[in-house]
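Q:
My hope is that you can spare some time for a protein that puzzles me. I hope you can help me see how the letters and the tokens relate. Thank you; the sequence and its tokens follow:
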Amino acid sequence: MKNRFSLKILLLFPLSFFGQNDLSQKQVLEDYTIFKEILLKGHPSLYEYTSKTEWDSIFGLFEQKDIKKTRTSNDLFRSISSIANNVKDGHLIIHHPKMDTVPPIFPLLLKIIDDKLYTDTDDFGIPVGAEITFIDGKKSNILIQEFLKYAASDGYNLSKKYRQIEKEFGILYYYEYGEKESYTVKYSVNSSEVRTIEIVPQSFESIGSRYPNRNSHFAMFHGNTDRVEHFKSTLAQKWPFVYYIDSIKSGVLTVNSFGLDPKEFKSRLVELFKEIKKKKVANLILDIRQNIGGYRINAINLFSFLTEKPFKQRIAESTVTDTLPKERYVIHSMSDYNEFFKTYFASTEQEGGRWILTKDHAQAEMMPYKSPFKGKVYVLIGGNTFSAASAFALNAKNSQEITLIGNETGGGYYFHTAQYSALYELPNSKILVRMPFVHIDKYVRDKSVPKGSGILPDIEVEQTVEDLIDGIDSQLDYIVKHLNEKQKKHGNTLHNR
């Protein structure tokens, strides 16, 4: 039971337990005003996608109209989430107020494909790959649009938002519509006639126990009949690991996190690449589709094993404030802000209302490893590829020797926020606001990419409904087939994986 509960915590992340306390108009206004002030005074990229005139309109709408309808912490959470969504910053995160209990929630585990909802398990008599067309009379595409405000991403990117909505659909449905005794679900199978079923909500624990059964976790593709064990050893595995596809002389190096001890992370990379070299791997497939970031140095060290040339990552860092706005409401910060500012920005000049750091202070670290991998490299990316992992993907994009396959990353192409953040708690609603304070401009080779994009793959491969039903990893399968065909052209007969 303990293992199941621990697994559950891994599954529906990031989780906020639910609060629904009543608020007076005075309390609503106080919390909103604090949020507005820290946003206006502290966010380093506030006007990148939304102009001052637009912000005046957004704030004015809440102050003149929406505040009158805001009576609970959940109401305010929805409004603040909607406001924050206009920043278009994946590091600006609004957390629902915490509470001790979790109500039963919408139980279906879903996948978004082509802006539509499909079942990712075969629970409740609904087969995998069935299209969910309506829930309680609401069209699925409308539900997706309503839930976008709860999912933070950089720029105009939707891939990260979709991945979060998939993971948290039941929670988001509760945020938007409250607790329900049952749900009326309409669905179709193979575009046939629409069927209707009544589904009762389930506990968080019950949903968590079914999470490893998702077809999109690809247990079948890897020949693993124990889906829980497969989940633990792949998606839930934080430390880098590698497995081999001998038929195509390839290794698949999976790196799900950069948020690990840098010294130990580097040590593990050294051992893994020794093993890869010993195996005489010709093609390295690097999978960072589930990597939401972490320590920048880990991303730098990993890339140093894949290149023979020095590489750049950043061209500037900046902040708009040298003091922490509304510091009394900060409940956690990464370090002392005054010390942080002194360390990173004391030697810089203030320019246009912001402090600019033009030197890449990690440049000395950004050199190739003494014996890097010399074969062909493919990098698998997707919506969950974020922050330091997205910066890594940009290094790969800049190299022009590495092929990126998959979907657009959740992290921005030209810039993102990071480095220093503070966690605020609004005093009345207990809403949590994670605010970043440093704007980072990235080094890019191709400046024709539209602003607001993530890192785009060289070859985009979408998961199809058919592959979802069959449990096929569309993107990895693409590379395997490509390499099989490549070797066949050279006269080698290969077996299917």
Q: What stands out?
A: The chain is about 35% helix and 20% strand. Residues 71 and 101 are 21 Å apart (CA to CA). Residues 1-17, 492-497 have pLDDT under 50 and may be disordered.
